[in-house]
Amino acid sequence: MLSRGSGLLGLSAVTLFAVTGCGSGATPPAPPSAAHSTAATADAGAGALPQVSASRSACGTGWTRAQAGLVQLDVHNTDINAAEVYLANAAGKVYAEVDPLGPAASAVLTASLPQGTYHLICSVNDADPVDGPTVRVTGPAPGGTGVLPVTSAQLAPIVIGYQHWVGGRLKVMQANARTLNTDLRRGDRAAARADLVTADHTWGTLGGAYEAFGDTGEAIDGNAYPWPQGVHDPHWTGLLRLEYGLWHGQSLASLTKYGNQLTKDLNTLETTLSSTEFDPLSVVLRSHEITEGSLNQTLTGHNDYGAHDELTEVRGQLAGSAELLRRLKPLVAPRYPGYAAVVKQLAKTRADVAAQTSWQVTTPDQPPSTGHELVDGDVAELTELLSPIPAMLEPRVF
Amino acid sequence: MPNLSRRTMLLRAGLATGGAGAAAALAACPAHATPSATNPQLPSGPVSGDHPIGKAGGGNPWRPILPFHGAHQTAVLGDPLPEATIVSFDLLVSNKAELTGLLRTLTEHVRALIGGGVPTPAGIAGTDGSGILGPSAPRHALEAILAFGPGVFTEKFGLADAKPRRLRPMDTFPNDQLDPAWCGGDLLLTLQGYERDVVTNALRDVCRATRGGMQIRWKQDGFTSSPKPAGHPRNLLGFKDGIAGPDTGNAAQVGELVWAGAGEPSWAAGGTYYVMRRIRMLVEFWDRVSTSEQERMFGRRKDSGAPLTGGGEESLPNYSNDPNGNAIPLDSHIRVANPRTPETANSQFLRRGYSYDAGVDAVGNLDMGLMFGGFNADLDRQFVAVQKRLVDEPLVDYITPVGGSYFFAPPGVRDTTDFYGSALLA
């Protein structure tokens, strides 16, 4: 089971605005090693780095000047609490961060800076962030790109709107399950198969990849890999269990219990969604995680139990990604020069998926089909283009 | 195809008797130019404490890195480095402009990877590279060879008329057992260096930069071991490999045998036909064969690499004194591959292969062998002619070509503004 952190907060009492984005659930970026090679450019050999303090009382002490281009600071947290340390310019654009930096810990902060004026920001836990002294950076090197950070408060209305939309998609999913159950009871296998494919598409739009919906999500759409007896395990439930039965000659009567369980699990999810708020960070992460799931679970065939409806699922997943991107646009577009490329690649991917007239599941002794490679490459490129969005929109405390 | 059995019961008709006195046409093991002590291409940073970078030549895999920029892809000429990955890609780009963009991106990334140093940090505007080389990557510890498959030369890219005249899907030879999953591809990228992590980092970076433009079709990691105890490195059959071949320090030989030109489209001058074949070695079978029989199949001593007519690894086989094959059998690998006659001198080509080790087959035998690489000025005059001579050689019972393709490596990237295939796409 893959888990990068559930999209749902564990406690319904937590309000959106109390959520601190920094370091709350996301995998923190590993700080670069303090011991670094003498081969570094910009004379950034070990021992040559400015020793810089990061605390409420001495934020940025020790950093006084730099040449444009690669800048490395050996940042030391002299506070008694953990901190996040940012390097920002006068306009507030962030060029580098160390998150988190524990009390008494050191880390190398590496940035690529164009000429301008900069300062450190020391955001010590449970305290207001402190700006360090201004440092003028000069020189001709072009430097990297700064990004205006985003707060939880800015994300909140988008997250609420997205959650509302997901709730609407869940109602569609519940209707799909009802239809499936009806056809299972009627004994109409062809109709039940069609219903299942429809439900796969709907579920894809909800963006349930990587345990976004926790255990309930796994009960609804988990594959058989986690279960000791695999496809024969009595505890395996959900859409993929139904797919396995429908495509492996199991009697429809024997599958009705799974249909009923699906309905129950969807109702449980509905209850959870109505009483729990999405974590903004998790929603931001999902902007690339949905298509990561398309690549690593769907297109690989890992979740194919006979329906071969990979493309249908991917269509749903792309629709889900598009919806999230559309909602995040007000925050993404001004920050991300590649936004237009994302939109273009999303459209290309959806068109190329729609244009596939047949689908060959890749087998070990054959090269991938041309259509498979095209869709794989499209989704991979799209996911690559989406991947900066979580880095930019991760809620930060300022 | 009807492989001859290990012990053919019928005596084979006499193969062409070695042309008398023709053996010395080409030097077997050329001396290479010694790099300057201040060679800027020497890598910085950790490469290996156990293997200082030595002189080029004699098959030494711990040789200096060759320059990236130049009229040719000079990495072609270097002996195989200790580590490599050989990757075939299918193109997903749909027109000439996109192909040009892809090749520019590829060039920029390869150039930056060879340059090494501290990667530009992404800050919060994106995500950083693999990080497997630490905060600062070794400099000049990587080489790359890029080559085009026949799929590049299509109407889709407006390049149908620009195809190198010999380029085509790989021929199927009588002893092949080709697996479609290991054949074909529109681009071949060989990344080679001293250390596995440098090669792996390069591949991850290149793929990341080109996801929508090309997809990996097949990939095989390879390696070259350090000489045991000296001379050319050994292949997985235990024999020294790559001893004979063109003298890469001899401009005339390289010009005749490696760089394409005459008869080719003008853009292709200075490029080279790059044959890549995945040759499985049936090592379990091989290990159950006596050393003497193995040596007769190759025509060389297993321990020293010397031809069976005597001398050392670098001695020329003396066919004139051995017209009936009493020392070096007439059907031995080295004698058939390179009879050292005036007529066959121009069929020699530059072999640059890597051993591979890739798991286990259905009966529990090891899947290992040779990623056979060969560079040719003229595919048919050289590789294909030699391969035809080698059909049903005794060694075929122990080696099985299972994949591969023909490619054409374009001329070099001339400078910091040039890119792979610029002359083709101009």
List keywords for this structure.
heterodimer, A: 398 residues, A middle domain of Talin 1, 2 domains, six-stranded mixed beta sheet, three-stranded mixed beta sheet, 10 helices, B: 426 residues, alpha+beta, five-stranded antiparallel beta sheet, 9 strands, signal (chain A), EfeM/EfeO family lipoprotein (chain A), EfeM/EfeO_iron_uptake (chain A)
Radius of gyration over C-alpha positions of chain B, nearest whole angstrom: 21 Å
The biggest sheet of chain A amounts to: 6 strands, mixed
Corresponding CATH architecture of the largest domain in chain A: Up-down Bundle
Sheet-strand content of chain B, in percent, reads 15-25%
What structural class should be given to the helix and strand makeup of chain B? alpha+beta
Average predicted confidence as pLDDT of chain A: 89
Would you mind describing this structure in some detail?
The complex is a heterodimer of chains A (398) and B (426). With 398 residues, chain A is an alpha+beta fold. Chain A folds into two domains: 31-138, Cupredoxins -  blue copper proteins (Immunoglobulin-like, Sandwich), CATH 2.60.40.420; 152-393, A middle domain of Talin 1, CATH 1.20.1420.20. Chain A is 44% helix and 14% strand. In chain A, the strands form two sheets. In chain A, strands 2, 4, 5, 7, 8 and 9 form a six-stranded mixed β-sheet that branches. A three-stranded mixed β-sheet of chain A has the order 1-3-6, with no helix packed on it. In chain A, strand 7 and strand 8 form a beta hairpin. Chain B is α+β, with helices and mostly antiparallel strands and 426 residues long. Chain B has one domain (43-425). Chain B contains eight helices and nine strands. Chain B has helices spanning 96-115, 196-209, 251-257, 283-286, 291-298, 333-337, 380-389, 422-425, and strands at 83-91, 142-148, 187-193, 214-223, 272-281, 350-351, 354-360, 366-376, 399-409. In chain B, strands 5, 6, 7, 8 and 9 form a five-stranded antiparallel β-sheet that branches. A four-stranded antiparallel β-sheet of chain B has the order 2-3-1-4, covered by helices on one side. In chain B, a hairpin with a 5-residue loop joins strand 7 and strand 8. In chain B, helix 1 packs antiparallel against helix 2 (196-209). Chain A binds chain B through residues 30, 32-33, 36-37, 39-42, 44, 70, 72, 94-97, 108, 110-112, 144-147, 149, 336, 345, 364-368, 370, 373-374, 376-378, 380-384, 387-388, 391-392, 394, and chain B through 44-46, 90, 92, 116-118, 120-127, 131, 134-136, 138-139, 179-181, 183-184, 208, 211-215, 217-218.
